[in-house]
Design a protein that fits this description.
The chain is an alpha+beta fold. The chain contains two helices and 13 strands. Strands 1-2-9-3-4 form a five-stranded mixed beta sheet, with no helix packed on it. A hairpin with a 2-residue loop joins strand 1 and strand 2. The radius of gyration is 20 Å and the shape is globular. The termini are far apart.
């Protein structure tokens, strides 16, 4: 007959494994998914250097980070995905935008190595983070997929990173191509495809 003490000892490793698995499964699981985007919604066409998939052929997975798949190329129409594109502007040069052409920014008070966000509370209201949720993928056009990933924020949401830098929207940008957040406070800059600050040369 199995004693109560023996049962507790044998059950302990299983309980610990279950807790660890639950933690892995819940990582970034509560993030609100972004709305599906259409592959043709970018503000500017993808640079010629990025090979578009042939008709009927989906872009290839270029990187995997945990559950997240990152594809090199435009998202298929109707995909539940986050799209990153490269956009050009004479005042800042090339910078990263989302699939709707909205500008993305980086914050100098964040860190890229290790990737960490220092924008929470009211800061995250003014500068909403670009997030990705389980069940979504990221598609990139003109951005090196190896430079794209995510971090888990304190609220459990998964925030997209470029070159290790967490990326954000600016609440006052209302239209595709708006860059009203450029240089705000001397710490906010449109994010370049490398993850650096987008500034005209």
């Amino acid at each position: 007959m199995l004693s109560t003490t023996s049962f507790r000892r044998s059950a302990l490793p299983f309980a610990a494994a279950a807790v660890a698995l639950a933690g892995l499964l819940s990582a970034c699981g509560g993030a609100e998914p972004a709305k599906p985007i259409a592959a043709t919604s970018s503000a500017t066409p993808a640079p010629a250097a990025v090979a578009a998939p042939q008709a009927g052929q989906a872009p290839a997975v270029a990187k995997t980070q945990g559950w997240l798949k990152i594809y090199d190329g435009p998202a298929p129409a109707g995909a539940n995905a986050v799209q990153l594109n490269v956009t050009s502007n004479p005042s800042v040069g090339q910078y990263v935008s989302d699939g709707s052409g909205r500008s993305l920014y980086r914050f100098d008070k964040d860190t890229a190595n290790p990737s960490a966000s220092n924008c929470a509370g009211q800061c995250a209201v003014t500068w909403p983070p670009l997030t990705v949720a389980r069940g979504q993928s990221i598609y990139v056009s003109g951005v090196d997929p190896q430079r794209v990933g995510f971090i888990e924020r304190a609220d459990g949401a998964c925030q997209v990173t470029v070159g290790g830098w967490p990326v954000y929207y600016f609440g006052k940008d209302k239209n595709a191509g708006d860059l009203l957040g450029q240089g705000v406070g001397g710490t906010w800059f449109a994010v370049a495809p490398s993850g650096g600050k987008a500034v005209a040369s």
